[in-house]
Amino acid sequence: MSHLITDNLSLATYCQNAAGQRALAVDSEFIRQSTLYPKLGLIQLFDGKQLALVDPLTITDWQPLIQLFADQSIVKTLHSCTEDLEALATIGIHHIQPLFDTQLAAELLGWGSSIGYAKLVERATGELLDKSESRTDWLARPLAEKQLQYAANDVTYLLPLYQHLMAQFTEPSLLPLLLAEGQQLQQRRANPLSPRLKYLEVKNGSLLRSRELAVLRELVAWRLEYAAKRDLALGLVIKDFQMLELAKRKPGSVESLLNIPGMTGRDLRRHAKPVIELIELAKQLPQEACPQPFYHTDHFAGEKVVLAELGHCLKEAAAQTGIPVAFLSVRRQLHEYFNWCWRVTEQERVLLPVPEYLTGWRQQLLLPLLPVPAHVQNLVKNFL
């Protein structure tokens, strides 16, 4: 039976009791429809004895939970935890260690890529989970009993799933890789990409020329600042494809902004002035201050060729180590290494985080196989 926690004392008592357990299942429910940051609606905890549903709308002292999550003697298990980490960070929880992600564990064991929680539970335990309440407004109060039961199920089966997966780790070298990955996820959250470099994450931005990239850089940084101050989803400020068009066309008047696809009168009233000013700023930059299009790099074979070569290296590493490609690398890590090596200027490179291919356990496994362009070889040697 689950216990709804709505006050600080009850949360502190639960955390004190859970401190004696070896593992803790954790999940969260949140809403993120039109905001930049998730709105936390519920936290589910199960220590194997007592299941708690914590109401974040009424709790004011999170220190007991912060301490519990940082307790190294208790394994915290979550499923596909990236968004949960972001939601929990909104109440000051930034360190969950050790962290065992069941989706990553399944990938490392070769069960497949990005397996959903319900499918994983069914495979491991045979239980079929009811997902009918997945679209619940978790900020509404009171929550119905059916909604609370749905939330409770997300951790009721998570602990047995963790135990089942743990039993599969018969190779001693694999579990440390999984736990290291849990730490890496949190380190990346603690060191986000600089707003001035966020343009690197815009899809198809790599097709732009130098001056166009300068415009895109200004627009992306401005959009993030605007959205963060107002807690607005980025797409509600201005969409990626619109920024790409603005970067290509570089309009200099309100009238010319009307030719940008999807640009509405409301957009013009809100953003015309700063957008035009930012475009003009980028147009006036000296050439050396503009981003460098990667396709102008000396001896560059082409994006598709290099990405294909990187993909081949990952497959070779997987064949040599027995670690599935799905765990060795996700698409973000692949493009992170590609951008760092081929797409940025020297000045931008020093501001970027070191690619995960060049840190931790991945460095040892991947670096002997990775293509390293001549202009960063000395820098890469410093990481060895």
TrEMBL record:
Gene3D superfamilies: HRDC domain, Ribonuclease H-like superfamily/Ribonuclease H. It is an enzyme of class 3 (hydrolase). It holds the Pfam family HRDC. It comes from the Bacteria. GO terms for cellular component: cytoplasm. Its main location: cytoplasm. GO terms for biological process: tRNA 3'-end processing. One of its GO terms (molecular function) is ribonuclease D activity. Keywords: Cytoplasm, Exonuclease, Hydrolase, Nuclease, tRNA processing. Its cofactor is a divalent metal cation. It catalyses: Exonucleolytic cleavage that removes extra residues from the 3'-terminus of tRNA to produce 5'-mononucleotides. It is found in: Cytoplasm. InterPro entries: 3'-5'_exonuclease_dom (IPR002562), HRDC-like_sf (IPR010997), HRDC_dom (IPR002121), HRDC_dom_sf (IPR044876), RNase_D (IPR006292), RNase_D-like (IPR051086), RNAseD_HRDC_C (IPR048579), RNaseH-like_sf (IPR012337). Its EC number is 3.1.13.5. Exonuclease involved in the 3' processing of various precursor tRNAs. Initiates hydrolysis at the 3'-terminus of an RNA molecule and releases 5'-mononucleotides. Belongs to the RNase D family. This is Ribonuclease D. It comes from Arsukibacterium ikkense. The lineage of its organism: Bacteria, Pseudomonadati, Pseudomonadota, Gammaproteobacteria, Chromatiales.
